[in-house]
Specification:
alpha/beta, TIM Barrel, 11 helices, 10 strands, about 35% helix, binds ligand IDC
């Protein structure tokens, strides 16, 4: 009798719709809230030199980058992410996963799982999750190609049914030619696309993602030698305290020629520290607004440097909304992320 009851119970779980027995926790993936930036815009696609939403309309996304998640994961938690989505009204969370400097290479399983978790957190709050392969030193991304292939294969496999993933395969190539960066990209992009064919992929450019300018190279080296894969954007980074009108001119020119996404910038020096240059920063923002160039600011942490938006020690607390805990750079950038979005749907 007991055995029969068990058999019946098992049969019931098999036939009753909605009774999910034994589904692994990882399959329970978050849904995008209605009306949120990622829900309204859906699957992103490059259109000409612009970024378009699923309705084929050019849009500009704005958001924040985490600090290195090996150092400041305490700043990426429920209360701070709620503030980023609801109070700052950010469209994008850039998940900055260093490879070296105590990052991914020390424990691939741990860091891949951290990224999976942050992707779900961004998704729950309706933000795009920009997965940043934060190679930096060594500057040649080919040093990490096999790691990148392993990592991105799993990320793409797990999240391919989401519409809010943006893959950035190289943070800041430096001291390496564009042709070598291109060859790296040609090895990594197919790994992602085999799993997630319609995905948006970003590729860092030489000279710390300045189209070679910081390395003294001609930005046209990139423009003349584009990737053949579709749906790809090139990244540009700047720090307004160090990078003046010549950098602005490079951004202005290349963004007319190829699709550009500013995945990292600061209002201070390239060290992420020092005085803020808000007037130079505003020139960049005006250009990016006019051209609908998406941007992400560095960084959403309480590091002591001026470019970390929160005052030191804030991340141990539970209150992140408003401006009370922000440094000047945080107050400035929050205002500019909060500005109403322009997301046409028809
Ligand atoms: C900085 C971090 C700092 C860290 C350093 C080296 O703020 O804590 O010690 O990296 O890893 C970049 C890089 C980004 C830098 C940032 C500010 O993408 O990793 O962060 N920056 O220096 N490019 C230009 C500036």
């Amino acid at each position: 009798m007991a055995r029969l009851r068990i058999a019946l119970a098992l049969a019931a779980t098999l036939v009753l719709p909605g009774v999910l027995v034994g589904v692994p926790a990882q399959a329970a993936s978050a849904a995008l809230p209605a009306g949120s930036p990622a829900e309204v815009n859906g699957q992103l696609k490059v259109c000409g030199v612009k970024l378009c939403n699923e309705h084929g309309k050019p849009i500009q996304l704005r958001g924040m980058s985490t600090h290195g998640i090996q150092w400041y994961s305490q700043c990426v938690k429920t209360a701070s992410l709620d503030a980023l989505a609801d109070d700052w009204k950010a469209d994008v969370l850039r998940i900055s996963m260093y490879i070296q400097e105590d990052g991914y290479e020390t424990n691939p399983r741990k860091f891949t799982d951290l990224v999976h978790g942050y992707i779900e957190e961004a998704t729950k709050r309706g933000m795009y999750a920009l997965v940043d392969w934060h190679q930096l030193d060594p500057g040649d991304p080919n040093y990490n190609t096999s790691r990148a292939r392993t990592f991105f294969k799993e990320i793409a496999q797990r999240h391919k049914n989401k519409t809010n993933i943006i893959y950035d395969i190289a943070n800041e190539p430096n001291g390496v030619s564009w042709s070598k960066v291109k060859s790296y990209a040609e090895q990594v992009i197919p790994v992602i696309r085999a799993e997630d064919p319609d995905s948006l992929v970003l590729v860092g450019t030489s000279g710390w993602s300045t189209f070679g300018h910081s390395d003294g190279k001609d930005p046209q080296d990139v423009v003349r030698n584009k990737l053949s894969a579709p749906n790809v954007m090139y990244t540009f980074h700047f720090y307004a305290g160090d990078h003046g009108s010549d950098y602005l001119a490079v951004l202005s020119k290349v963004s007319d020629q190829v699709p550009v996404f500013v995945t990292e910038f600061g209002t201070q020096k390239a060290s992420g520290d020092g005085a803020n240059n808000f007037s130079q920063s505003q020139k960049y923002l005006d250009l990016m607004n006019a051209k609908k160039i998406s941007w992400v600011n560095w960084n959403f942490s309480d590091d002591e440097r001026s470019g970390a938006v929160f005052k030191p020690g804030t991340c141990s607390g539970t209150s992140f909304s408003g401006t009370g805990r922000l440094k000047p750079a945080g107050v400035w950038i929050r205002d500019r992320i909060r500005t109403a979005d322009d997301f046409p749907t028809s």
